[in-house]
Specification:
The protein is mostly helical and 226 residues long. 79% of the residues lie in helices and 3% in strands.
Length: 226
């Protein structure tokens, strides 16, 4: 027997199963065969879009809302006790309308009234909405802590990436300038080296010529002067 919570959640979820359980197929078939008047009477006013959910998740949320209701449970019979009794009598009274009347009659003896039933349902609804607000706040904080932090890191890494690209471009320019300077200096060295070698050759030629001239003069002195 499914609990009130599982039934309520199951109305708006799609189980992640290729072949739904036979009971679900039967319930769906029974719903299709239900008279139009009964369909309209039992149809929720605002049905959210069905969401895919595993059976494990369904059980987790079922237990979560059951704990939530137990913590918020009011003294005496109210909406929560009403539906727990409805679940208990489901096997004995299949028709939900008849079961509601029977449950209300039995709990009325314990002090339940239509006003208490409706007002307590509203309070449990407020409890769920507060739980939803707390959940969304926790999700937001987790998003800020986990996702926003990673986004900041991505932005930082992208900035570092751009900076390094600019540095690489600057280094390429500096390397190109240094290469040009090396080529220029190499040409200057070659030019100066050529001048030095030319001067050296000229000097050595002149020096050899002067030495030869002196040697020739000395030899002529020996020959001509007594």
């Amino acid at each position: 027997m499914s609990s009130f919570f599982r039934k309520a959640i199951s109305l708006f979820v799609i189980l992640d199963e290729e072949n739904p359980p036979a009971k679900q197929v039967q319930e769906k078939t029974a719903e299709q065969e239900q008279p139009a008047s009964e369909k309209n009477a039992s149809k929720p006013k605002a049905a959210p879009e069905p969401a895919p959910m595993s059976d494990a998740d369904l059980s987790k949320f079922e237990k979560h809302f059951e704990r939530l209701f137990e913590q918020a449970n009011l003294p005496g019979p109210d909406y929560f006790e009403f539906w727990k009794t409805m679940d208990t009598l489901e096997a004995h009274i299949a028709n939900e309308d008849a079961r509601m009347k029977a449950v209300f009659a039995s709990l009325k003896i314990q002090g339940l009234s239509k006003q208490i039933l409706i007002e307590s349902a509203g309070k449990y609804k407020e409890t769920i909405l507060q739980d939803k607000a707390n959940f969304e706040s926790a999700v937001q904080k987790k998003s800020e802590a986990e996702i926003a932090g990673r986004k900041d890191l991505i932005q930082k890494l992208q900035q570092e990436h751009e900076t390094k690209i600019q540095q690489i471009e600057q280094l390429k320019k500096e390397i190109e300038a240094a290469t040009q300077q090396v080529d220029s200096l190499s040409q200057e060295i070659a030019g100066e080296q050529g001048k030095i070698e030319a001067a050296q050759r000229g000097y050595l030629a002149a020096c050899s010529a002067m030495v030869s001239k002196i040697d020739n003069d000395v030899e002529r002195f020996h020959q001509i002067i007594d």
